[in-house]
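We modelled the chain as a single entity of 413 amino acids. Its sequence is:
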Amino acid sequence: MAAPEPPHRPSSRSRGSTARWVLLLGALAALPAFTVDMYLPALPDVAADLDTSPALAQLTLSGMLIGGAVGQLVIGPLSDRFGRRLPVVVGLSLHVVTSVLCAVVPGIQALIVLRVLQGFFNASAQVVAIAVIRDRFTGSDAARILSRLMLVIGLAPLLAPTIGSFITTYGTWRWVFWVLAVMGLVLGAVVLRWMPETLPTERRREGGVGTVFRGYATLLRDRHFIALAILPGLGMAVVMSYVVGSPFVLQEGYGLSHQQFALLFAVNGIGLVASAQANAALVRRVAPVRLLRAALVVQGVFALALLTVAITGAGGLIGLLVALWLVLSMQGFIPANASALALSRHGEMAGTAAAVIGAFQAGVAGLVSPLVGVLGGDALAMSGVMLGVVVASILILALATPAFRRGGWHTPV
């Protein structure tokens, strides 16, 4: 295990500087979420307009996540080699191109392919945002900043479906992609104007493909890193199982309108944001590993309650929504702490490490979330997949790390 290195910036940063970084990096990291969530209320419309099945329509979401997983594995090492600014500027430019093509696509097969490419290029925004945090912060500071980042990222589920619903009320689902193209242009301009390079030339990793593979080999041999790195992916699988299932469960199963669905989606977004901010406050006094451990266990209890409601119908729509909110409200304690713990082990190649974390986050979610549609697309399928993923998370943390053992990690992280 590589010893955690101190940040190369002074630790006494002003609040204004920290807020600027949270807003800037949060906007970057939120772009993939906006690309998913703004499109979400129109998912049934896409299936109808392109004369396809709900399962294929859902693949336009899962395909983007899989593309993002591959993209992060490619872009992460590039950001360690060439710095943080160049990869994100190129990625945002190609995001704009694919968004325009999605807006004029004639069929579902082409849309799925374009969404995979869109996810690939979107990956530059997320992997660079996480790598920049590791460039400037370590340990509990990194966990705190990642939690603050969730406040900005949390605006995606709060605002995106409402924006998407507004767009599709006055236009069609294709207009969503025109808006995403404009967002990419604006973010690219912001990066060029306000984001400095955080990886000095002397800290960049030299070498070609061999260096990349050696870096990944080092990470893959670290069992604790892999276990921690996969937890954000499993957490994203919980969220995406809800994301891909909820339009059909709530709009078709319970008859909610686009506007009602967007409102409920925003309420669940509030739970995500609140838990992220609670984590940011608690991590100053409680070790990230302890918060991670407790959150997973509590989330498991809530997920079991959700499955029970889905099976029995107890409480009707209200019972289902309350149980869903409780499961999702624990999510703010999981990715930030797991990512900070994982990154602290390999700060010397933060871009590559962030790429692995991001690849797991997108790839695991992309592979797991289609199970909701395969298993029927109803409330039972959605809640069953969510519970299974939470149980897998608990088992991985318990069996592949010392988090649940007496003594556990002997470091403050």
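As a brief sanity check on the tokenised model: The chain has 17 helices and no strands. The first helix runs from residue 15 to 37.
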